[in-house]
Specification:
single chain, 239 residues, alpha+beta, Alpha-Beta Plaits, 7 helices, EF1B_bsu/dsu, guanyl-nucleotide exchange factor activity, translation elongation factor activity, Translation elongation factor EF1B beta/delta subunit guanine nucleotide exchange domain-containing protein
């Protein structure tokens, strides 16, 4: 993975064009590091992907962002030496105890972005874009693979090859009788002359490779041995 810095925002911008966060599908340490290193909202015209990524991260609270990456342990305060004992003095009038300060909430004294204005519409758009990228990636991952198909052109020869009516009846019988799942018959049937008035039937079919074998179809045709003399492939082409 590339090493991202605030000095190479062009590289960061190119990377964010294909993913939601610098750490992949979920935000992580790289996102927090670059986000905290920016001085303000990045220019939208120069780095559009970084701009929307920035708005998306800015919509989370500092406390949530702190959970995405390692946080340095707080330094221990230096120990103070105990004051030396002094001789007792005359009791002075009691002063009022100082009022305890209300605990500060997360982010009260942290202003990472100064006075930079964040457009609510742009922030909303950033979230929509992130969601769109997520859905596109999911759809691409789950997209079904195309079904492999083959166009097969074949010829059928019958014994009574000069009988046009029998030729047509045989072609019709093939289409009406053999219809397994995964096979679609071509509409056109040709009757090409062989010699001396004899003709052969030329047909086509589209088969799904995972469901149909040509031999299964041809075996059913040649099973009509009283009429059919042979079946041969003319051509095969992948769809």
């Amino acid at each position: 993975m590339a090493h991202f810095t605030v000095d190479n925002l062009g590289q960061v911008n190119d990377f964010l064009a294909t993913t939601n966060y610098l750490n992949g599908d979920l935000p992580g340490a790289d996102d927090v590091r670059i986000f905290n290193g920016l001085k303000g909202v990045p220019p939208k015209d120069q780095f559009p992907e970084v701009y929307f990524w920035f708005l998306l991260l800015n919509s989370f609270t500092p406390a949530v962002r702190a959970q995405w990456g390692p946080v340095a342990a707080p330094k221990e305060a230096p120990k103070k030496e105990a004051p030396k004992a002094e001789a007792p003095k005359a009791e002075a009038p009691k002063a009022e105890a100082p009022k305890a300060e209300a605990p500060k909430k997360d982010g009260d004294d942290v202003d990472l972005f100064g006075d930079d204005d964040v457009d609510p519409e742009a922030e909303k758009k950033a979230k929509e874009l992130a969601e769109k990228k997520k859905q596109e990636a999911l759809a691409k991952k789950n997209k079904p693979k195309p079904v492999a198909k083959t166009i097969v052109i074949f010829e059928v020869k019958i014994y009574e090859a000069t009988d046009q009516q029998l030729l047509e009846a045989t072609a019709k019988k093939i289409k009406e009788t053999i219809n397994p799942d995964g096979l679609v018959w071509g509409k056109e049937v040709k009757y090409e002359e062989i010699a001396y008035g004899a003709k052969k039937i030329v047909m086509s079919m589209i088969i799904e490779d995972d469901k149909i074998l040509t031999d299964d179809v041809f075996d059913q045709i040649t099973a009509w041995e009283d009429d059919v003399s042979s079946v041969d492939i003319v051509s095969m082409q992948k769809v």
